[in-house]
Amino acid sequence: MGSFEEELKALIPPDFAERQQAAIRQIDNHPEIKRLRQTYPDRSGDLTSPRRYRDVSEHLAQCDACEACPGLTGCQNIQKGHRSVEEPNPNKSDELVFRLRKCNLLKDYERQQGIGQKIKSHFIPAHILDATFDDIEPDPQRLAAITAAVKFCSTFVPGQTTEGLYLYGPMGVGKSRIAGAIAQELAKCDIDVLMVYVPDFLLEVKDAISSKTETVESKLDSLRTASVLILDDIGAETLTIWTRDEVIGPILQRRMERLPIIYTSNLTINELRHHLANVKDARDMDRKQHEKKAERIIERIEPFVKTISVGGRNRRRG
């Protein structure tokens, strides 16, 4: 037996006790230990005992990593996006235990992912979809539109709000960014939004007519049912009788008096009326018929929106 004890002692470094005491002193002087003792005077007495060395050391290492946080992608903790937090041990009235909990960066990331899932889009650039009201400069020529957009978001009630917005003005003044900010704000409130760049979407619908893998109906259904629909740059598309009367018209008819639409356009309502009457294949129908068809669509837009001019400099040109 004596021989075994001697062999065991031989395996222990001669300075082991000193090193252990030095590690305990280091723990004892750590700012986190001081905080815990101040916060939990009745539960922190054993934090520097040898039996707690491992879990306390891990807690302090993760606290140090969080103190020097390089961001979520560079997180050095055991479980990325989690930090070690203390809790009173429910089984021992004088002890603390440590648990991993999601940090604020991970919570913000997950919240943003949830927002992204609430916003569907077709052909909308990321810088438009990511816009927020904080990003938009409230210069005088855009202030009325921004104010109306913020009010729309703050007063929106699913199933009750039916009036949308028609934002019109020259190219590059920021109409689409205001609409994108509306989408972001609503998505934060768990409201589903669909934002569509009208010219490219209508081209896609046209291509889907001859597609055997995707039906036109499936492409249009989401436009009919989204809680809020944003039609970006309406009036910039090349219209045919079919896209006007069988695509745009029925979508607006389905949503009319039920679900709101936000429009952005370079055209005033009167200019949009003229655009709708001058379709690409106008020769297939007399002028009066086209004007009636156009007026019918305008009647599905104008009474159900607040029309606001958006001005200012062309921000695409700096």
From TrEMBL:
GO biological process, one term: DNA replication
Gene3D superfamilies found in the cross-reference section: P-loop containing nucleotide triphosphate hydrolases
AAA+ ATPase domain location: 161-286
Annotated GO MF terms: ATP binding
SMART domains to which the protein is assigned, alphabetical: AAA (SM00382)
The organism's place on the tree of life at top rank: Bacteria
Pfam families: IstB_IS21
Official protein name in the record: AAA family ATPase
Organism this protein belongs to: Paenibacillus amylolyticus
UniProt lineage: Bacteria, Bacillati, Bacillota, Bacilli, Bacillales
